[in-house]
Structures are given as structure tokens and as C-alpha cells.
Hints:
There is one protein chain. The chain is mainly α. It is built from eight helices and no strands. The protein has one domain. The N and C termini lie far apart (about 60 Å).
Amino acid sequence: MTVRSKDVGLFEAAINVLKDFRAVWRVFTKTLYYLFRGKREKGEIARQMFHVGNESLFFMCITMAFIGAIITFQTGLQSKKLLPDFSLMGATYLKLLVRDLAASVGALPLATRVGAGIAAEIGSMVVTDQVDALRMCAADPIDYLVVPRFIACVIMGTVILVIGGFVAYGAGMLVAFVSFDVNPHTFNNLMYLNLGDLVLGFLKCLVYGAAIAIVSAQRGLATFGGSEGVGWATTEAVVGSCFAIIVLNLIISTVGYFLVPGVGPM
């Protein structure tokens, strides 16, 4: 039986994906272990929270403002063609924003900003032998390097995504008022929002923040060579984090459809 080169390429790609998943899973399990039993440098978590949160706030607000404005404008244009009634535009937009868009769409630009930084910083430490020096001192790099970034991404990533959701909602409200003459009181409608939407949206924020930290840290620890290796790790961190967000979005949304259905008022 002959195997075509294309089939061999797909097989090797599948094997590489499984290897990457196993490496990420190994880093994740060790991170959870050291999360409760590790010894971290004093003030490191606060420093990482500043890098993840404060330095990403302006970028996230601007990005989510444009995204919210575009989504609302396009929704209004399509609604105008079918049924020129904008009374439920705000209620529908808010439900989609809370349940999925604020976390899933906002996490993608956050991954480019935070994930690249984590991979580049850890990768630079790998190629300059600082990580090997930690191992020689009987210190696990995951405990000293990954865990503080993991905690910072989970906490501040959630805060940043929530703030970005508010900004996107405000931008959508402004666009609806200027472009389609929708009164802000009419747009600000909580009719379709329920507790399940809030739970699902908050869970996605937590999971995406954790995924960005773990995937980016794993890529940073896997850095090889010199500056070229750091560039590879940075690119792989962004691509891997975005891919993880998309896959996790599918999984959480599917499970959430059955466990926390978004039906009924709050």
C-alpha cells in the first residue's frame, strides 16, 4: 500500500498537534500544582498584573469600541432592510455581547498583546540561559515564571474583558443613537439578559485568560536558538492562543447551551 505525500503531511501535522497539546497540558498541570504549593518571588504577581492589566487597558478599550460600533452599525443596516424596528436592537446586542462577543472577540486582541509579551519574555530568558540557572538553583521555572503570569492573566484578563464589554456596549449605544436614532433608554434594554448569560460570559473570561497564559508560557519555555527562536516562540504563542480561544469557545458554548441556556429574562 502506497501512501501519498499529502497524506503523510497531514499525518505528521496531526502528530505535531497532539505533541503540542500534550506539552501544553503538562505545563497546565504543573502550574495548578505550584499554584497551591509553590514559592513565588514577593511582588511578582502584582508586577505581572500591572503588565497584563494596566498596559493592555487602552489597547483593549479602543479595539472593543471599534468592534462594538461596527457590529451595531452592520446589525442596524441589516435590520433596516428586513424590519425597520430598532426597539429590541439593544436587548439583542447586549445578550450576544455578554454571552459571547465580549469574551470571545475581546480575547483575540488580548492574546496578541499579552501572549506575545509572555512568550518573548520567557523565551529571552531561555536563550540567555536564565531558565537553566533557575534549574541549577533547584527552582522550577514553572513555579517562578509561569504561575505569576497565570494568576495575573486569569484575574486581570477577566477584568480587562469585562471593561472591554462595557466599552463595546457604550460604543454600540452611541452608534445606534447617531446612525439609527435609537434612544439610549430604548437601547439599554435588559429584556433578554438572564443569569445564565452572565455565568457563561464570566466563565469564558476566566478560561481564556488561563489559556493565553498557559499556551504562551509553554511556547516561551520551548524556545530554542537565539533571536530567531524568540521570534518563533512569539508567533507560535499568538497563533496557539487564538486557536485555543476558538476551540474553547466552541466547547464552552456547546456545554453552556445545555447547562445554562440563554432563555428567559433575568
